[in-house]
Amino acid sequence: MRAVTTSHLGSLTWERAVDRPDLLAERTHAMISGWAVVEPEVADAVLVAAIDPDLADTAAMTEAYDLPLAASVNCVLVAGRREGVERVAACLVRATTRADVNNAVKRLLDVRKASFLPMERATEESTMEYGGITPLGLPDGYRMLADARVGTDVTDAGGTVVIGSGVRRSKISLPGALLLRAPGVEVVEGLALA
């Protein structure tokens, strides 16, 4: 294993995620490893850092580790029904915004009403921990909708974003533009509200 530090992104020590399965949900590590086979640059671009699990929530984490709030990307799970069929999506939005569930998400899922998945169901179905849910390794059948601003460099972090790792004890960092290219991600203009 080789440690890769990113001095421009907070006070954390970042390492290649493919080398640290102990810091990732099982499905997340499998997804990143498979993606790296198809796109070899992913192995060096997707990093992970250990954190205090009590600081996994975005506000606490950004403050404790000197990370810009705008670099954090939240992954929220939303569902709605149409003709008895449930449609579920993971919405990726910067922490300084919020998913437009009542308009954009509802329209994209083509449902009459969309709402956040209850925590217990979200963690059970994703096999990830609350506070660590990530788009990398979600179950098949989940749409992954990403606000286009996730790929925009809005901080001094060089376009790097911070997302969940599937567990509360770590976070993943990667270029926002790369996250928008992750398998299955649909880029949506206006998915988030300021």
Automatic annotation (TrEMBL):
Matching Pfam families: tRNA_edit (PF04073)
InterPro entries from the UniProt entry: YbaK/aa-tRNA-synt-asso_dom_sf, YbaK/aa-tRNA-synth-assoc-dom
Span of domain YbaK/aminoacyl-tRNA synthetase-associated: 53-180
Protein name: YbaK/aminoacyl-tRNA synthetase-associated domain-containing protein
Species per Swiss-Prot/TrEMBL record: Cellulomonas oligotrophica
Lineage, highest ranks first: Bacteria, Bacillati, Actinomycetota, Actinomycetes, Micrococcales
